[in-house]
Each structure stands twice: as structure tokens, then as C-alpha cells.
Design goal:
The complex is a heterodimer of chains A (112) and B (115).
Chain A lengths: L2 E4 L4 E4 L4 E3 L1 E4 L4 E8 L5 E7 L5 E4 L2 E4 L9 E3 L8 E9 L5 E3 L3 E6 L1
Parallel strand pairs in A: 2-12
Antiparallel strand pairs in A: 1-4, 3-9, 5-6, 5-10, 7-8, 8-9, 10-11, 10-12
Chain B lengths: L4 E3 L2 E4 L5 E6 L6 E8 L3 E9 L2 E4 L8 E7 L2 E6 L8 E8 L9 E2 L3 E5 L1
Parallel strand pairs in B: 2-11
Antiparallel strand pairs in B: 1-3, 3-8, 4-5, 4-9, 5-6, 7-8, 9-10, 9-11
The chains are: A mainly beta (112), B mainly beta (115).
């Protein structure tokens, strides 16, 4: 079946450190891939997306590249800030369907 | 633009009581989703609607849960009777079906505590 697996947290980094959150997927069709971010007490917000292989999504210094050969969509940021502390969710949507499949979320804490 | 609006933001009630959660999707969005988030199980899709019609309710945990969408601008998720294990954050999300590949937009959630 269709699913997303992302690295377990929590992740704690110092400010300005490099961030990678791994995400791999299993899909029966041709998925679009998404990263959502959830700040404390709020709903999920779209961070970035990629709709086909080799596309790179980017936003607010975050990037993720849709790698079909490794079925991955890892989230990266070169220099994290305290304000990046949140829970990050990887998600996929099969283009022929309507349902989103979310990973379990990875909690990130950035310390000054 | 107004986002997805959920009410109430917080609900505390006693076991056995009926709970009704409300959602107003973004205007023009024809898909509406209800999710439940817990520490143990993460984010779970409960049910989704397309053009006010329930399409997939396989995620609804029990008959105690029911959801309706009487019109394009309003949906409810009802739990009757409520139990302590229903305590969670419930999110509503909506999206448009066209153009394709559009993301879901989430509300801020309802934090439900059943005592």
C-alpha cells in the first residue's frame, strides 16, 4: 500500500546547524510529495512540495528533492534558527486519488 | 484570505457526553478532511468529503463517531458518547480539486479532553 516513513525524533540542534530529516515513501502510482510544518498549538502548514521526479521544492530556506530512484524526499536546511522549532510531517498524495498519507512527524528543537 | 476555521479551540467534557466539533472550509474548496492527532498514533485520517458527500469513512474508529457536511461551507464531527480515549487534537483540512496536486490547508485544530 501507499505509505510514508520518516525518521523518528526528537531532533535537537544548535542554531545555525545543518538539518536533514529523512523521508522515504512507498507508492503504487505516481505521487506528489509534500512537507508540512506544525508549530506548537497550530495546525499543519504546507512548507514545500514537489509533483514529479527530480523536482525540488523550496521555501524559507528549506529544500527537498523528489528522488524516484531512492523513493525519497529528504528535508534539508543549511542553517536552522530557533524559530524553526516545530514538528515536520512528510506526506504523499497519489495523483489519481484524493487521500494524503502522512508520516508520523519529526519533532525539531533548535537551541540558541 | 480566511483559512480553515475550526471551533471550539478547546473542549473539556466528561465521559459519556456528546461532543460536536465544527469546521468551516476555505471557500471554493470541494474536499474536506477530518484528522485526529495523538502522540501514540500520530495523524490519522478519519473521513473525507467531496462536494459534501462522504467518500471514505474507513478511518472512523467506531460507530460513536459520525460526520456530516450539510453544505459546502460547514461540517461537523460528532462523538456520542465520548470516552477518555477520544482525547486528542482533531484537525479539519480542505483543498480544491482543481488544478490537480493542490495541498491541503489545515485549521488550527480542536483540543479535546474527555475526563
Amino acid at each position: 500500500g501507499d505509505s510514508v516513513t520518516q525518521m523518528e525524533g526528537p531532533v535537537t540542534l544548535s542554531e545555525e546547524a545543518f538539518l536533514t530529516i529523512n523521508c522515504t515513501y512507498t507508492a503504487t502510482g505516481y505521487p506528489s510529495l509534500f512537507w508540512y510544518v506544525q508549530y506548537p498549538g497550530e495546525g499543519l502548514q504546507l512548507l514545500l512540495k514537489a509533483t514529479k521526479a527530480d523536482d525540488k521544492g523550496s521555501n524559507k530556506g528549506f529544500e527537498a528533492t523528489y528522488r524516484k530512484e531512492t523513493t525519497s524526499f529528504h528535508l534539508e536546511k543549511g542553517s536552522v534558527q530557533v524559530s524553526d522549532s516545530a514538528v515536520y510531517f512528510c506526506a504523499l498524495r497519489i495523483n489519481t486519488g484524493n487521500q494524503f498519507y502522512f508520516g508520523t512527524g519529526t519533532s525539531l528543537t533548535v537551541i540558541p | 484570505d480566511a483559512g480553515v476555521i475550526q471551533s471550539p479551540r478547546h473542549e473539556v467534557t466528561e465521559m459519556g457526553q456528546e461532543v460536536t466539533l465544527r469546521c468551516k472550509p476555505i471557500s471554493g474548496h470541494d474536499y474536506l478532511f477530518w484528522y485526529r492527532q495523538t502522540m501514540m498514533r500520530g495523524l490519522e485520517l478519519l473521513i473525507y468529503f467531496n462536494n459534501n458527500v462522504p467518500i471514505d469513512d474507513s478511518g472512523m474508529p467506531e460507530d460513536r463517531f459520525s460526520a456530516k457536511m450539510p453544505n459546502a461551507s460547514f461540517s461537523t464531527l460528532k462523538i456520542q458518547p465520548s470516552e477518555p480515549r477520544d482525547s486528542a487534537v482533531y484537525f479539519c483540512a480542505s483543498r480544491t480539486g482543481y488544478p490537480p496536486n493542490q495541498p491541503q490547508h489545515f485549521g488550527d485544530g480542536t483540543r479535546l479532553s474527555i475526563l
